[in-house]
Design a protein that fits this description.
Layout (H helix, E strand, L loop, with lengths): L2 H13 L2 H8 L3 H15 L4 E3 L4 E3 L1 H23 L7 E7 L1 H6 L1 H11 L3 E7 L2 H9 L5 E4 L15 E15 L9 E4 L5 H10 L6 E4 L3 H9 L4 E5 H4 L9 E15 L5 H13 L3
Parallel strand pairs: 3-4, 3-5, 7-8, 7-9
Antiparallel strand pairs: 1-2, 5-10, 6-9, 6-10
Helix pairs in contact: 1-2, 1-4
Family: Belongs to the LysR transcriptional regulatory family.
InterPro entries: LysR_HTH_N (IPR000847), LysR_subst-bd (IPR005119), WH-like_DNA-bd_sf (IPR036388), WH_DNA-bd_sf (IPR036390)
Protein name: LysR family transcriptional regulator
Length: about 280
């Protein structure tokens, strides 16, 4: 078991295919197949359930992937620690779709100009899914919206740290023909903080029905149909063409936080914190 083999295992797990992993890594398929087989023999377990089309992680493979992510992340952290004055290496970052749409273009452009040696990647998911990926080292950090408890205190997992970055004004979009007796909400899948806020808002009325959407454009289409309302940041609404007759109602302010694993340090992460601090609207 070595660093290269663990990287191969991770990519095969992500692609669910040796062929695609080989293309991504620029290696021959037979080399990757041999490495995976040797790894399974070394561990004494089958890491994948193989069929004719895909390689799906076995339960043991799922468990081992979690450790693999942590090992590779720690190795990258150690590598960057040896060069504290020059951010380099990689930074795997996650973000809510809303923040990616309305905030990240100038942030990433500035980051790339200042730190061209950092390989920055971005994954977009709802808040709860991002938190799990940071906790399990699939991501180094993420921009999320942590929900407050009944007392107004931010709820953050104990093994994560965070800093507030942006304040968003959340708007409720109400179609011209909205039915107040049977409210519907177009929202991202469960785990989205803005969905939770929208459900809490509309559940003051009879039980709200939620229609899952995968993008803010599909949310606008749902609002245009006259069947659904939507909750989204004002900064995102400003980038979209709202359906004719749509009403906008301010409902709350929501903080966006940058989160990372407790105790995790890297020059690339510190550089991103500095860029976000300069872009913050707090």
């Amino acid at each position: 078991m070595n660093h290269t083999t663990l990287q191969m295992f991770k990519i095969v797990a992500e692609e669910q295919s040796v062929t695609k992993a080989a293309q991504r890594l620029g290696r021959v398929q037979s080399n990757i197949t041999t490495r995976i087989q040797q790894l399974e023999e070394d561990l004494g377990v089958a890491l994948f359930v193989r069929d004719s089309k895909k390689m799906i992680l076995s339960p043991e493979g799922e468990s081992f992937l979690s450790y693999t992510n942590k090992i590779l992340s720690l190795a990258e952290e150690a590598r960057q620690a040896l060069h504290p004055g020059k951010p380099a290496g990689s930074l795997h970052m996650g973000s809510m779709e809303a923040t990616a749409v309305s905030r990240l273009m100038p942030v990433f452009q500035q980051f790339h100009r200042r730190y061209p040696d950092v390989a920055l990647t971005l994954a977009t998911q709802p808040t709860q899914q991002l938190l799990e990926q940071v906790r399990h080292a699939s991501l180094d950090c993420a921009l999320v919206s942590l929900l407050p408890d009944a007392g107004g205190h931010i709820q953050c997992p104990e093994d994560l740290e965070y800093v507030d970055v942006f304040t968003e004004r959340l708007m409720l979009l109400i179609p011209e023909t909205a039915n107040s007796h049977n409210p519907r909400l177009a929202a991202f899948p469960r785990g989205c903080s803005y969905r939770a806020r929208g459900e809490a808002l509309l559940n003051a009325q009879p039980l709200v029905e939620v229609q899952d959407v995968s993008s803010y454009h599909s949310m606008m289409a749902s609002v245009a149909s006259g069947r659904c309302s939507g909750v989204l940041p004002e900064s995102v609404a400003a980038t979209l063409t709202l359906p004719e007759g749509t009403q906008q109602q301010f409902v709350a302010e929501a903080l966006t936080q940058l989160v990372w694993r407790k105790g995790y340090h890297s020059t690339a992460l510190e550089a991103m914190k500095q860029i976000l601090a300069s872009a913050s609207n707090l």
